[in-house]
């Protein structure tokens, strides 16, 4: 669980203060849960994608979409049947499969899931974990709580990397070069998932030692090598960023 999602760069997001980015990330996530119109949500989502392309590049921007693709597929399959209001769009054997209301809800959920995902992806791709912990501590969050949050947020990308590595190792050991069908692929996932589970259990002592080295459980007061200075200018920038997001939100709602 020592995998870092930070990508080196020289964009304005890489140079921005982590406290400002943390505040904007919180406002962005809240915004996607508000009852915005589809048009407003799509405009905001498009803006995030363009910012990601400018800061990280086009191909790196595709990574979060690949990560949530299974969730998007489930949303497309499972959401429309539960909404029967509105005009019928797709009817098969007198069974309403898709209505206008179901289509709108499906698009809203997809924009919400992908929007929140790309927001976190942009933040952790342009902000180092150390700066994120310092930003949380600056907001008066205890160090232990900040460390727990960072470990939890890094757990999923770490497991994805481990899963891909184990899957590649299984492919190298297999001599079967024939085409593998869909259900065969699903069946082949179980050995990989078992290997990931075993690897996760074996990594517990390593994580425990890493936490001990960081002073977790020690009665000695923790010292810090790096700190974020608290000055009025940074506070004003943070407040300005939040106000800017609120202004954009009001404009979109209108």
What does it look like?
With 254 residues, the chain is mainly alpha-helical. It has two domains: 1-141 and 227-254, no CATH class; 142-214, no CATH class. It has eleven helices and two strands; from the N terminus they run H-H-H-H-H-E-E-H-H-H-H-H-H. It has helices spanning 12-15, 18-33, 38-56, 58-67, 69-78, 100-126, 129-138, 143-173, 182-202, 204-213, 232-253, and strands at 88-92, 95-99. Strands 1-2 form a two-stranded antiparallel sheet. A hairpin with a 2-residue loop joins strand 1 and strand 2 (95-99). Helix 2 (18-33) packs parallel to helix 11 and helix 5 packs antiparallel against helix 6. The protein is globular and about 70 Å long.
Give the strand order of the largest sheet, numbering strands 1, 2, ... along the chain: 1-2
**Which descriptor suits the 3D outline?**
globular
Work out the radius of gyration: 22 Å
Percentage of residues assigned to helices: over 70%
* β-strand amount: under 5%
**Distance between the amino and carboxyl termini:** 44 Å
Number of domains: 2
Structural class: mainly alpha
Give the SSE string. HHHHHEEHHHHHH
**Which consecutive residue ranges, at least 5 long each, have pLDDT under 50?**
none
Count of alpha and pi helical runs: 11
Mean of pLDDT: 77
How many beta-strand segments? 2
What composes the largest sheet?
2 strands, antiparallel
How would you concisely characterize the structure shown here?
The chain is built from eleven helices and two strands; from the N terminus they run αααααββαααααα. It is mainly alpha-helical. The longest helix is centred in the middle third of the chain and has 31 residues.
């Amino acid at each position: 669980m020592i995998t870092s999602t930070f990508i080196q760069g020289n964009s304005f997001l890489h140079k921005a203060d982590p406290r400002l980015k943390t505040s904007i990330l919180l406002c962005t996530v809240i915004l996607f849960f508000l009852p915005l119109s589809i048009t407003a949500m799509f405009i905001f989502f498009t803006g995030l994608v363009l910012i990601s392309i400018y800061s990280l590049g086009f191909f790196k921007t595709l990574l979060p979409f690949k990560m949530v693709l299974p969730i998007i597929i489930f949303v497309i399959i499972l959401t429309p049947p539960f909404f029967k209001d509105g005009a019928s769009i797709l009817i098969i054997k007198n069974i309403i499969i898709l209505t206008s209301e179901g289509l709108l809800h499906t698009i809203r959920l997809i924009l919400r899931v992908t929007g929140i995902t790309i927001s976190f992806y942009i933040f952790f791709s342009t902000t180092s974990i150390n700066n994120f912990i310092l930003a949380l501590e600056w907001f008066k969050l205890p160090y232990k709580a900040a460390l727990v949050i960072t470990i939890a947020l890094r757990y999923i990308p770490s497991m994805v990397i481990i899963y891909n590595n184990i899957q590649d190792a299984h492919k190298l050991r297999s001599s079967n070069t024939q085409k593998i069908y869909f259900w065969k692929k699903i069946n082949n996932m179980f050995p990989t998932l078992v290997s990931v589970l075993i690897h996760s259990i074996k990594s517990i002592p390593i994580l425990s030692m890493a936490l001990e080295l960081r002073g977790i459980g020690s009665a000695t007061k923790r010292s810090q090598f790096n700190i974020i200075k608290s000055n009025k200018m940074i506070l004003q920038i943070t407040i300005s960023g939040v106000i800017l997001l609120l202004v954009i939100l009001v404009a979109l709602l209108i």
